[in-house]
Write a structure and sequence with these properties.
alpha/beta; D-Maltodextrin-Binding Protein, domain 2; six-stranded mixed beta sheet; three-stranded parallel beta sheet; about 45% helix
Length: about 375
């Protein structure tokens, strides 16, 4: 009997070790997936969006008022959002905040579900200028959240005439030519944002006065313009412009109106911002509901809360993105808003451009 026990003891010890390992794995998996189980059971929504659109304080106010917990995950770009949705169709997310052109792509791929405007008590207060655009003509799948327009931030000390009308000549023309024309006091460097599609459209609008129906000669002309421009581009970026300007590294930059306030405040009157009279590009950021979300009632409450007059104003004051609720216009400084005439000259990014061709062009520009 003792011999049998001795023979079986190695197997018994192995069996005990296997049980211990399985128990440890079970405990680890339990705690790993416990948040998902709890989140599934609780009253909550999962939001996937960019940073600096919605104030964390606004989210806390919403949670306190409704009892709905909001879990936010942030993405870096529309393309990152789109890639994730192509893989799993957005399963796990209840609300996203794509830009205008991305709404159209997600609609084409049947990745969004319709929004019930009747459940949005603040929808009637939205600025009509933010509705019924090409990417979602009836706003069946999207609700605007915020918007911004591209313009030129510049050092007033550069100008020979402080009241000069700043346009895209100051970005795309050789600064030496502007010196000879006595528009500026000296040659200068600029910053240009680092998005090939946006840069291409802005350059096409400046050079060709059109952004659609472009032929091979048009593409070649825009590429030539951008390669030539590179000689006075200090950096391709949309961030840290304040330090480039304050450090006298650049004198002009193309940027979004949402980033301008902090630059102008830091400059104590030294810097200005101008939306060119010839027109420019603007961007509408939107709410949209993934097709697989089962929490649409709670999501509609969240959307309605965030497009209210109060919270559109809060988001503008905190992050600079223009409100979409026209009632908020009474509460804010609209110095960076285009007037009606200029607004009609603005254009949105579109999906007609061959992206691979644009990216190849951008690579040639950056390496020229």
């Amino acid at each position: 009997m003792n011999k049998l026990l001795e023979q079986s003891s190695p197997w018994r010890r192995l069996f005990d070790k296997v049980l211990i390992v399985l128990f440890v794995l079970f405990v680890l998996l339990f705690f790993l997936y416990l948040p998902s189980v709890v989140r599934f059971e609780e009253k909550s929504i999962n939001v996937y969006m960019f940073t600096e659109y919605i104030s964390p304080d606004s989210i806390r106010d919403f949670e306190k008022e409704t009892g709905i917990k909001v879990y936010v995950q942030y993405c870096e770009s529309n393309e990152e959002l789109y890639a994730k949705f192509k893989v799993n169709e957005g399963i796990g997310y209840d609300l996203i905040a794509p830009s205008d052109y991305m709404v159209q792509l997600l609609m084409r791929d049947d990745l969004l579900q319709k929004i019930d405007q009747k459940k949005l008590t603040n929808f009637a207060q939205l600025d009509p200028a933010m509705l019924h655009h090409y990417f979602d003509p009836d706003n069946s799948y999207s609700v605007p959240l915020t918007w911004s327009v591209y313009g030129i931030v510049y050092d007033k000390l550069l100008l020979t005439n402080p009241t000069a009308n700043i346009g895209f000549d100051y970005i795309f023309k050789n600064p030496e030519d502007l010196v000879h024309s006595m528009l500026v006091k000296k040659p200068y460097e600029i910053c240009m944002f680092d998005d090939p599609r946006e840069v291409f459209l802005l350059a096409a609008h400046y050079l060709l006065k059109k952004i659609t129906n472009l032929n091979e000669q048009d593409f070649a002309a825009v590429e030539h313009l951008l390669i030539n421009q590179k000689r006075w581009v200090e950096c391709y970026t949309n961030f840290g412009l304040r330090y480039f300007l304050e450090g006298n590294i650049i004198s002009c930059a193309v940027t979004s109106s949402r980033y301008v306030s902090s630059i102008l405040e830091a400059g104590s009157g030294r810097f200005g911002f101008k939306i060119p009279e010839s027109g420019s590009m603007f961007v509408i950021e939107n709410f949209a509901i993934p097709v697989h979300s089962k929490k649409t009632a709670m999501v509609h409450k969240f959307i309605d809360f965030m497009i209210s007059r109060k919270y559109c104003t809060v988001h503008f004051n905190e992050y600079g993105g223009n409100p979409v609720n026209k009632e908020s216009y009474q509460d804010i400084d609209r110095q960076f808003f285009p007037n009606d005439e200029l607004f009609n000259k603005l254009f949105l990014i579109h999906n007609e451009l061959p992206l691979r061709k644009i990216e190849e062009m951008w690579l040639r520009v950056k390496t020229a």
